[in-house]
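Hey, resending since the last one bounced:
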Amino acid sequence: MIRERRNKEKLASYYKKFMEEGIVDPNVHPWVAESWLRCRALNLPHETMPKINKLSREEIAEHQRTHEFIVKYVDGLYEQSKQHFNIHNLSMLLIDENGYVIKNYAMPFFQRIIEDIQGMRVLEEDVGTSSISVAREHNVPFLMFGPEMWIKDSHSGDACSAPICINGKIRYIISFFSLDQNDLPYDLLLSLLLTMKYSIEQHMAMLESWTINRIMMDQLPVTVYWLGKDGTVKYCNENGRKRLDNHERLQDVFLNYEHIPIKKALKGVPTQRREITWITQDRTYEDITTVMPIKVGSEVESALVLSMSIEDLKTTIAHATGYSSRYSLYSMVGETSEFLALQHKASRVARTDHNILLQGEPGTGKQRLAHGIHQASPRAAAPLIAVKCRNASLKELENEFFGTNEGEQQAAGKLELAIGGTLFLDEVEKLPLEMGDELAEALTHGLPPLKKGGKPRQFDVRVIAACDSNLKRLADKGLFSRKLYELVLDTTMRVPPLRERVKDIEVIAGHILVEMSAQHNLPQKRLSPEAVSLLLNCSWPGNIKQLQGVIEQAFFHTPGSIIEAENIKLPGDKTLERSWKYDKEAFIAAWKSAGGNISKLASMLDVSRVTLYRYLKKYGLGPKNE
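The structure tokens again:
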């Protein structure tokens, strides 16, 4: 707080009146008066400096090491104004947020030697009223005249203190104390103090920002170099340090330094997102590299290099777009021997690196099982890339699996995104024979390089394939790639239909209800015995997926916490209790129940339209037969 010059004789009389009579004169600054009253209540001595709370010698040394980053900066500020401190007999203190003196500058404070004051606590309860305690309490700069201070020995000079704040919180206090009684230039004193306050706060904010940026740079899968005009490394992140391997200059490490566009950047020419090979004595890095000139005014003074491994980039993209497993093996529940045997086998197989073929009817949980196997495997930290196979053109499928590299249309394929992780081929039987052969060849032997002179592209990928049909029979008939079939045949797992796990229906339904409650943040619900009985008497041709749809509908349409039998809407007609996949009459009954509407039937049976067309053809149904 900027204050006008006060008559010190009058201030001294106010102090004497308070000390002798306990009366606060109305002319005493209210903040000073409040502090005096608190000091009196604490029975603090006021004639001479009392014995003050102080850190030990070891604690002082540790204290200064802790605050070394700010001490160095304040040292620099003080050096710029040292002559003015000497001319005006000024002392300066740097104090931490808890009131301990970190360092004393220039003249002794309170006539003490420098070694004495460092490590001392100078709060109100220690030294009484001071500009330090007032500035700290009210979080504003405060100028205090000698006779306002609690300790009488301090009345020979004036003091001014300012809090150093970051994000509204006091982190330090800087305090000036003057022993000069003659014409102290208060305006210049305050100007210097406020300039230092602003400078320190800006420096600390910059340090905070720089610390965050440094942590971020070290955590990101990017190599960062900031190079001076002569090519020296002014900064590099953790990845950069690893590549430099204790060297100080890039040209001492990278054999092809002259071909990396750093000199171009130092001449003002940027290079953005270009594929660059970084060659060292021991290894080669294939990166996407950006090199930007950094200008001060109109002159290029340095260059910034951002380089990311193409392999890391693919993994990062995969994770950023959500290519990770959503389920664990234990998100699948059941108590029957069939289910437990499947779960135990999946747990064992997950720990190997074998490719896996999952066979089972639609809706049995093959996708969830694939996710669980990936999550339980050593590849869990890498992406899980799921591909819904389809009968598309060869060009479309090649672009999807192998990526594109045509002009500006560059995109990584699913195979590259899955490197280090798992490629899940859902409904693999729909993959055209020719595409299956190409995919098997790529997984086994790799692909040619994208650019002339490059390395062949190899794919460290585990394959999990899921199919609704008998894949061996399709391969034997020449309807599916024999190469791909043999590649995924390392381990075959049959996922049993729900009608073979009738005792699991109640457990699965209860688990679905718990998941629904958690997912939608709604109160939990349970099934009545009658509702459970109703579910057990249905054969669930659409398996777990169909059961889930029925339970979800009941969950949202039941007002109370108990789901009764009447709240459950079973799929289709009673004739659907027989398996439509193996019973023509059951399928025809469902077909009639849907009124011949493909979309409605697909919804009833919870399968794709493509699957239904196969069965319509199989059973001789469809528009021609209506």
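The CA atoms of residues 382 and 399 lie 22 Å apart.

Sorry for the duplicate.
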